[in-house]
Design a protein that fits this description.
The complex is a heterodimer of chains A (111) and B (109). In chain A, 0% of the residues lie in helices and 57% in strands. Chain A is an all-beta fold. In chain B, the strands form two sheets. In chain B, strands 2, 4, 5, 9, 10 and 11 form a six-stranded mixed β-sheet that branches. In chain B, strands 1-3-8-7-6 form a five-stranded antiparallel β-sheet, with no helix packed on it.
């Protein structure tokens, strides 16, 4: 069984469009994250939710809006996509502040 | 101040050679975690170090945490092609992970 799953795996879209990425974890974890990995493989945290509450918001443009309908799901909606948004987006989850379990990633390409 | 610096950025080795990646911080770390990301894959947790001077081994991998808790290293003995990937150190800070830039290892068979 997949512990942390993301959909879609690949997303190719035009500049200016709005898109969403979904994440689900079946580990019973209480904290979920979104990370962005750029072309140089640098991993940077974007958001963190604990039990559906936003606890970390790292200087991310407000075109990015996370939503957590319950503690097993964390979605990411991106408005007015720009070329610089092209990256791999990883969802992760953890129980407490220890080991993080990452999803398979969503490779977003903005044309 | 919160960043962790990781070197080298890239390393190419012949299969059978050893490999080391280093992680440094200007401030004392409460702990350090190490992750491995295979090409096209996602980061996978390897280990967490907490104690000053701690050394942990996983088969051919040796992880060290400095006495001052400001640096850490990952050493792979006799690399194999399955070791290919990017190795990240990460510090935890108020519930979030701050990753080093990663070291990408290529192994020539």
């Amino acid at each position: 069984d997949t512990a942390v799953s993301q959909t879609p795996k690949y997303l190719v879209t035009q500049m200016g469009n709005d898109k969403s990425i979904k994440c689900e974890q079946n580990l019973g974890h209480d904290t979920m994250y979104w990370y962005k990995q750029d072309s140089k493989k640098f991993l940077k945290i974007m958001f963190s939710y604990n039990n559906k509450e936003l606890i970390i918001n790292e200087t991310v443009p407000n075109r990015f809006s996370p939503k957590s309908p319950d503690k097993a799901h964390l979605n990411l909606h991106i408005n007015s996509l720009e070329l610089g948004d092209s990256a791999v987006y990883f969802c992760a989850s953890t129980l407490g502040t220890d080991t993080q379990y990452f999803g398979p990633g969503t490779r977003l390409t903005v044309l | 101040g919160q960043q962790v610096m990781q070197i080298p950025q890239y390393q190419h080795v012949q299969e059978g050679e050893d490999f080391t990646t280093y992680c440094n911080s200007s401030t004392t770390l409460s702990n350090i975690q190490w992750y491995k990301q295979r090409p096209g894959g996602h980061p996978v947790f390897l280990i967490q170090l907490v104690k000053s001077g701690e050394v942990k081994k996983q088969k051919r991998l040796t992880f060290q945490f400095g006495e001052a808790k400001k640096n850490s290293s990952l050493h792979i003995t006799a690399t194999q092609t399955t070791d290919v990937g990017t190795y990240f150190c990460a510090r935890s800070n108020t519930g979030k992970l701050i990753f080093g830039q990663g070291t990408t290892l290529q192994v020539k068979p």
